[in-house]
Amino acid sequence: xAGDADYDLVPVVCNLGSALGRGTxxxxxxxxxxxxxxxxxxxxxxxxxxxxxWGGPPADTTEQKRAALIDMGVHSMNLRTMGFGDxxxxxxxxxxxxxxxxxxxxxxxxxxxxxxxxxxxxxDEPDAGEHNVHISLGPYQVATLxxxxxxxxxxxKTNYSTYPTNLDLDGSFKPYNYFNYGHVADILSVxxxxxxxxxxxxxxxxxxxxxxxxxxATYIYAVGATCQSACEPRPLHMILNSCRxxxxxxxFRWGTAxxxxxxxxxxxxxxxxxxxxxxxxxxxxxxxxxxxVGDADEPGSAGLRREIGLLGAEAGIVSQIIVNSCPVQxxxxxxxxx
Length: 338
Prior knowledge:
By secondary structure, this protein is α/β, with parallel strands linked by helices. It has a single domain, classed as TIM Barrel (Alpha-Beta Barrel), CATH 3.20.20. Helices cover 31% and strands 19% of the residues. The chain has ten helices and 13 strands. The protein has an eight-stranded parallel beta barrel, surrounded by four helices. It has a three-stranded antiparallel beta sheet with strand order 11-10-13, covered by helices on one side. Strands 1-2 form a two-stranded antiparallel sheet. Helix 1 (62-74) packs parallel to helix 3, helix 7 packs parallel to helix 8 (257-270) and helix 8 (257-270) packs parallel to helix 9 (299-317). The radius of gyration is 21 Å and the shape is globular. The protein starts with 24 loop residues before the first strand and ends in a 14-residue tail after the last helix.
């Protein structure tokens, strides 16, 4: 153990006789000279850096599904999450297995029998659905659904303990929802869509005053750092926006490559161990809604897709540094020509 008063981190190195089994649960406890203790329970998982996407472009034929799966690998993505543009058919075949193994692709899915499973998806944005819960004790409270989801997560430990569970949160009642749900699943997922916040500031007059808040993408770091503190020592999964918004005649642009690069850097700086994008599904083109980056070949989409691939390649090179690191505040003197 070592400590430095200038940092809010104490590194501890444990030399174990053998590796801890994946999915096993352990209690780590530090005992201080005065008898006080610092304890933490932790389920053991170790993975490379996960980089993925939600949904995908329309894939009806075998050729389209094959191309969609290969496209993930070409864009340095190794985590396939749920959503439209289903390619589950080919992922169950020998050919699909070969492609997934070639690129190291695994799934985050609610089907525990799914091939090449990485994690079990529990629920999407329960904090956004709490207003539907009616209880005899009165109005719903933040984290009304947390205990039932915690029970669901624990229920998988009997037969599927080697797969971490994943729970995605919206921004309802933040930051209280983050800290109430932070330890429900093995992996906390959060979706702070930067471009959506900018759209709200431009298109909603009642939110125009928030525009200065979103002039820089530090919003991503703020949410990431808060969620990391809420779920630590569990890993954090952050979902970034990869859509353009349609509302009748109004169209808001795609996120730029420069925006996405600094968003990814902020997410990693906050401690994210996994990053994904919502979404790659091309819907909303002719109707109101979000059109995912998918296979759209217009300049804004093509540039964003290319940058997403480059960022995944960069992160993959330092994958082990990312997954082994711990966010800590470090005083930095800015060079004169930075």
